Amino acid sequence: MSSSRTLQITYVGMKSQDVPIKSGTIKVMMKSDSEVLQEVVVTGMQKMDKRLFTGATKQLNADNVKLDGLPDISRGLEGRAAGVSVQNVSGTFGTAPKIRVRGATSIYGSSKPLWVVDGVILEDAIDVGPDDLSSGDAETLISSAIAGLNSDDIESFQILKDGSATSIYGARAMAGVIVVTTKKGRAGVSKISYTGEFTTRAIPSYKEFNIMNSQEQMGIYKEMEQKGWLNSADLFRTRDTGVYGRMYRLIDEYNNSNGQRGLLNTTEARNAYLREAEMRNTDWFDVLFTNAVSQNHSVSITAGTEKSSFYASLSAMLDPGWYKQSKVKRYTANVNTTYN
């Protein structure tokens, strides 16, 4: 028999062996094949062919979603995916837009989607409702889990819209899932990138809005008074009474020290008080707003080989604030390394 011929022997849990075929009895000693696996983390997500995926999903490229002048990239999802509703209920930085993926109502009281960034679930720092976002409460400034991410670090969004999201991430995903993938280094690509944005916002003008001035508003109040809708008896039982309520309270005031009333209850005195109110044309836009120039700078470095890749970035957002008490400074740092 030719000595060049071999017999391959395999067995489950044992190392395979190639034994030369010779005449006579062949004695084989098998060795165990055991390997110690490192600890693994199961996230529930895997990359698979789109043709094999049966769930309802929508993938969005971050370059198509990003809008210049918006530091929070989640606001750019508006109108990008069918069935996904995005409402920007507040312009304050850090407040999460109202995003609905699987309907606007829920028996559990919350219908916000779950955010997952590179396999890590992001929880909102404070759970606030849509009505709280425009309340002016300082807690709303940290209500968004995604607002702290640099938009230039995001590569793509994957929106999971059907029940498959619940099977992957559990009950927290009953309102849908938005999976965020950040940028990573690529083999054979080495570059340094810089992005700079300057956004100007001017003080609004009353000419841009159909708003009555004080004289026009007082004309409507006088017409309501003539029709009996602004009488003193009704206004004293009302919480917010406006200029007519203040006038009636001045008439009702009496100073015991000098024997004088706050306002005489005569036609001449009342008309003089109301004429003075007609001239109170306060420019509230000028009082509450200011001309502002916001800056957003981002620098990233990427490099990679066949065995490893590297991506690092630094960003700074400086916003002096368009209206009072809206000044924001945000600094971010991101490092992604991969080794095969």
Layout of secondary structure:
Blueprint: E1 6-11, E2 14-20, E3 57-61, H1 62-65, E4 85-87, E5 98-100, E6 114-117, E7 120-122, E8 154-160, H2 164-169, E9 177-182, E10 191-201, H3 214-226, H4 232-235, H5 242-252, E11 254-255, E12 260-261, H6 267-278, H7 284-288, E13 292-304, E14 308-319, E15 328-339
Parallel strand pairs: 6-9
Antiparallel strand pairs: 1-2, 3-8, 4-5, 6-7, 8-9, 10-13, 11-12, 13-14, 14-15
Helix pairs in contact: 3-6
Can you characterise this structure?
This protein has helices at 62-65, 164-169, 214-226, 232-235, 242-252, 267-278, 284-288, and strands at residues 6-11, 14-20, 57-61, 85-87, 98-100, 114-117, 120-122, 154-160, 177-182, 191-201, 254-255, 260-261, 292-304, 308-319, 328-339. The chain has four domains: 1-35, no CATH class; 46-182, Ferric Hydroxamate Uptake Protein, Chain A, domain 1, CATH 2.170.130; 189-205 and 285-340; 214-280, no CATH class. Residues 37-44 and 133-141 have low confidence and may be disordered. Helix 3 packs antiparallel against helix 6 (267-278). The protein has seven helices and 15 strands. The protein is of the alpha+beta class and 340 residues long. The chain has a five-stranded mixed sheet. Strand 1 and strand 2 form a beta hairpin. It is found in: Cell outer membrane. It holds the Pfam family Plug. It comes from Bacteroides ovatus. Its main location: membrane. Residues 53-177 form the TonB-dependent receptor plug domain.
Fill in the keyword field for this structure:
elongated, 28% strand, five-stranded mixed beta sheet, Ferric Hydroxamate Uptake Protein, Chain A, domain 1, four-stranded antiparallel beta sheet, 15 strands, 340 residues, alpha+beta
